Amino acid sequence: MKIGVPKEIMNSENRVAIAPSGVLTLISAGHEVFVETGAGLGSSFTDDQYAEAGAMIVSSADEAWGQEMVMKVKEPLPEEYKYFYEGLILFTYLHLANEPGLTKALIEHKVIGIAYETVQLPNGSLPLLTPMSEVAGRMATQVGAQYLEKPKGGKGVLLSGIPGVKRGKVTIIGGGGVGTNAAKIAIGLGADVTIIDLNPERLRQLDDLFGASVNTLISNSLNISESVVESDLVIGSVLIPGAKAPQLVTEEMVKKMKDGSVIVDVAIDQGGNFETSDRITTHDNPTYVKHGVVHYTVANMPGAVPRTSTIGLTNVTVPYALQLANKGYKKACIDNQALLKGINTLDGYVTFKAVAEAHGVKYSEAQSLL
Ligand SMILES: NC(=O)C1=CN([C@@H]2O[C@H](COP(=O)(O)OP(=O)(O)OC[C@H]3O[C@@H](n4cnc5c(N)ncnc54)[C@H](O)[C@@H]3O)[C@@H](O)[C@H]2O)C=CC1
Ligand SMILES: CC(=O)C(=O)O
């Protein structure tokens, strides 16, 4: 199969879909890979390294997009919709529940849209989201700690405290991949950490993992409200796979937070967990202040640590890309139910229920279209 790898064009998106090691894997299996010139530079991979791995370096986005399958990192931006054509296999993060324009463009052009974030194993885990959730979760605490500093607009609290002065309080809503990694770093910093989740079994696992280093709370409006209002840093990481994120923290709760507190809404890529997360920000200008609270709502957090993230993403996506390329998307998705769950658009239909519901459009089962 001919596989294209365009350069990412989102603000400060320095990741690339495949590291040279992944190119070598695909080429060794008999496929052709076309990498747009400079696509890897943000992650410190040169054209020469890609060429040595066997890729063809192409000089334009047009050529990279003109292949049978395109692998990307972020959801295409409107200026990329012109590259869509009927039958294109697009393998990338899509976050369609929060992207009505992109959903429409994929349907109109009959693109086979396979979303990394909805590929799901029988145990419910999301293997192509996990490494970026690990990155974003760890970053969430780091950036939260930074924005609590006075010169960054925060209230001037050091999360670790010092002897004689109490520790900062961190609330993490959603104890999955992002939440667990955010907690790891917050505990490491010595903060007073609370994790809130809807799933009691998940709370038990977190309790076993972190012991007395965390407080765990079941998710309900009262627990969320009480914990959020008392916190210096609140991290939003609730996901209902493929669906628009639930807004669990209301504007009223945010109004009650102390001035200079910080919100890091990692779930912003699916629409966000805070009623006050009313915009997506960029790495160039990552925060805004609402009701005195600093909001960080960057939808591509791992783009700031591209070297780690590109390698982490390649590790998990390439085995699936190989299945798509070796067998063709139909047989690959019939043989592997996890991959089948990744198909969000096919033949002009929305094939992921939560996406169809988010946009009020007809849902068609992917399997019946294969
Ligand atoms: N902004 C960014 O750059 C990035 C954003 N993300 C996003 O972060 C979000 C979280 O991802 P993961 O942690 O991997 O998901 P996950 O599926 O591992 O975890 C989600 C957790 O939310 C919990 N949950 C569901 N409903 C809840 C409720 N009502 N109250 C409390 N908890 C509830 C689930 O039980 C689960 O433990 C996703 O939207 C993902 O796309 C991930 C990576 C980068
Ligand atoms: C998950 C996602 O959208 C990201 O890593 O940017």
Bound molecules: 1,4-dihydronicotinamide adenine dinucleotide, pyruvic acid
Q: Tell me the structural class.
A: alpha/beta
Shape: globular
**What's the oligomerization state?**
single chain
Rg over CA atoms: 21 Å
Which class of the largest domain in CATH terms? Alpha Beta
Fraction of residues in helices?
A: 25-40%
Domain Alanine dehydrogenase/pyridine nucleotide transhydrogenase NAD(H)-binding: 148-297
Enzyme class: oxidoreductase
InterPro entries: Ala_DH, Ala_DH/PNT_CS2, AlaDH/PNT_N, AlaDH/PNT_NAD(H)-bd, NAD(P)-bd_dom_sf
EC number: 1.4.1.1
If you had to describe this structure to a student in words, what would you say it looks like?
The active site is at 95 (proton donor/acceptor), 269 (proton donor/acceptor). Residues 4-136 form the Alanine dehydrogenase/pyridine nucleotide transhydrogenase N-terminal domain. The protein is an alpha/beta fold and 370 residues long. The chain has helices at residues 20-28, 47-52, 61-65, 100-108, 130-147, 177-189, 200-210, 221-230, 251-256, 306-327, 329-335, 337-340, 353-359, 366-369, and strands at residues 2-5, 32-36, 56-58, 69-71, 89-92, 112-115, 169-173, 192-197, 214-218, 233-236, 262-265, 287-290, 293-296, 343-346, 349-350. The protein is globular, with a radius of gyration of 21 Å. The mean pLDDT is 98. The structure holds 1,4-dihydronicotinamide adenine dinucleotide and pyruvic acid. Pyruvic acid (PYR) binds next to loops.
